[in-house]
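In the design runs reported in the main text, the only information available to the sequence generator was the tokenized backbone. The following block is the verbatim input for one such run; it is reproduced so that readers can re-run the procedure and compare outputs position by position.
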């Protein structure tokens, strides 16, 4: 079992890293047992396949190559294996640590302070803080390091009996902790609501929600904005307090689905201060705005907040926020939502450009299906229905999430191409798919079932060849429905009658 765990990790190494680990265990600073080094060399010889069925990898064969004619001892072999695995874990930890220069420098300064080398520690700390502030985009890692640095400054001043600057550093540390804890709680609140919405899970009363509901966000925001207007300094780190306004606005507007003023403020602040944030946090902020829009589509105005959400999407795309890391693939669910939102708002040109930019960044496993589906949607938007159907027929549906939009597009194509029997058949099978599949969240099932009900009524009128009319109650219900998939298309078809 231990060998299996060890090999599972070694399989992730390339040749260069395998060589680096060999040097690591050959160093007598980390390992003084030559037999452990021999065991690793024997195991490494089977890289990259590491075939357990090979008799040369058996414990007895390995033991014999290390100790010659000595009788096999399972206890000794397991000890060597355990030692090697411990060295591997230590190597992984040190490798990760070595990649974080800031952490190394913090530990060095800490050690200098412990050794009472206060002058040297102070110079190093000043240099570290200066280098950190050169690339001072606001994000989790920056705030975490700034908090640590203020604490190290406090320790340094306290131990060297320099009293005056202590209070200033404590002020700054308090601001950093206030900012980071408030930002994290805002994210947690957002994530809990998003997960609840996505997976149809009820939210329980808990101390975090109770705490967040009882903070007077408006009063804190008025205090910050009032002092800003008066040019009064209220913080050591004024930059953080400036952007704290975004999270205050978020909590106000997310707790009150009917609010518009603080939502508009938040949206304005995100646009105004975007250059202050790192990419990951900007991504979070746009997700928070999207969450607010979706809630306000139901409680206030569906069309208005769908359009506002699309403007937020466009800003996020212009800032290249949909892939945070160079090697990251575009999230396919996100891609579908964004692409469909653009098409539903008749922004087919923007949708085509979005496909051009992000289509290549979809995981290779799903890219062929996603691109085929996307072209089918674009052809449909240009009323090239036969081409759309041809493109859609090539989609193999490897991705479960793609089944819903593909079925809806197929229904729309059947309608436009006058395939009435096929349309009725697909309505029935789609209804059964929605009601029997547990992978789809309940509110999404309900939205698509509403779509199918309206579609069925409109299809009846079309199939009658003018013998039936769409009643006014159905039209009114359609117009007043919020979060209805493909509402614009349904409304267009209803207006034709």
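Verbatim output:
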């Amino acid at each position: 079992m231990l060998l299996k765990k060890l090999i599972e990790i070694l399989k992730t190494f390339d040749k260069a890293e395998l060589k680096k680990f060999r040097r690591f265990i050959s160093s007598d600073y980390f390992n003084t047992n030559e037999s452990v080094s021999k065991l690793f060399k024997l195991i490494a010889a089977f890289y990259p396949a590491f075939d357990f069925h090979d008799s040369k990898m058996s414990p007895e064969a390995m033991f014999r190559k290390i100790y010659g004619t000595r009788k096999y001892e399972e206890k000794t072999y397991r000890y060597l294996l355990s030692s090697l695995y411990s060295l591997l874990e230590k190597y992984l930890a040190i490798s990760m640590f070595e990649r974080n220069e800031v952490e190394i420098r913090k530990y060095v300064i800490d050690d200098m302070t412990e050794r009472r080398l206060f002058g040297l520690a102070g110079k190093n700390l000043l240099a570290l803080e200066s280098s950190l502030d050169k690339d001072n985009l606001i994000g989790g890692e920056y705030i975490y390091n700034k908090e640590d640095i203020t604490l190290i400054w406090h320790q340094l001043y306290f131990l060297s009996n320099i009293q005056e600057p202590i209070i200033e550093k404590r002020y700054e540390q308090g601001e950093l902790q206030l900012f980071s804890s408030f930002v994290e709680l805002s994210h947690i609140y957002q994530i809990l609501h998003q997960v609840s919405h996505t997976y149809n899970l009820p939210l329980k009363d808990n101390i975090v929600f109770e705490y967040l509901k009882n903070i007077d966000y408006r009063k804190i925001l008025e205090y910050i904005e009032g002092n800003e207007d008066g040019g009064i300094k209220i913080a050591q780190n004024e930059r953080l307090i400036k952007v704290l306004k975004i999270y205050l606005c978020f909590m106000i507007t997310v707790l009150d689905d009917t609010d518009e003023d603080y939502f508009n403020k938040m949206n304005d602040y995100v646009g105004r201060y975007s250059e202050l944030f790192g990419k990951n946090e900007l991504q979070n902020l746009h997700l928070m705005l999207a969450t607010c829009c979706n809630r306000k589509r139901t409680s206030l105005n569906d069309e208005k907040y769908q359009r506002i959400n699309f403007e937020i999407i466009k800003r996020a795309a212009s800032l290249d926020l949909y892939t945070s890391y160079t090697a990251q693939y575009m999230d396919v669910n996100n891609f579908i939502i964004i692409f469909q939102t653009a098409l539903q708002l008749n922004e087919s040109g923007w949708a085509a450009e979005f496909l051009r930019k992000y289509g290549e960044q979809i995981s290779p496993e799903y890219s062929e299906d996603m691109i085929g589906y996307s072209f089918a949607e674009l052809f449909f938007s240009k009323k090239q229905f036969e081409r759309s159907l041809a493109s859609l027929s090539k989609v193999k549906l490897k991705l479960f999430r793609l089944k819903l939009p593909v079925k809806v597009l197929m229904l729309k194509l059947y309608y436009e191409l006058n395939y009435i029997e096929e349309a009725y058949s697909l309505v029935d099978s789609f209804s059964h798919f929605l009601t029997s599949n547990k992978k789809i969240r309940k509110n999404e099932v309900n939205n698509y079932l509403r779509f199918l009900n309206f579609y069925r009524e409109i299809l009846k009128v079309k199939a009658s060849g003018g013998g039936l009319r769409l009643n006014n109650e159905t039209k009114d219900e359609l117009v007043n429905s919020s979060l209805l998939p493909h509402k614009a298309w349904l409304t267009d078809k209803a207006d034709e009658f």
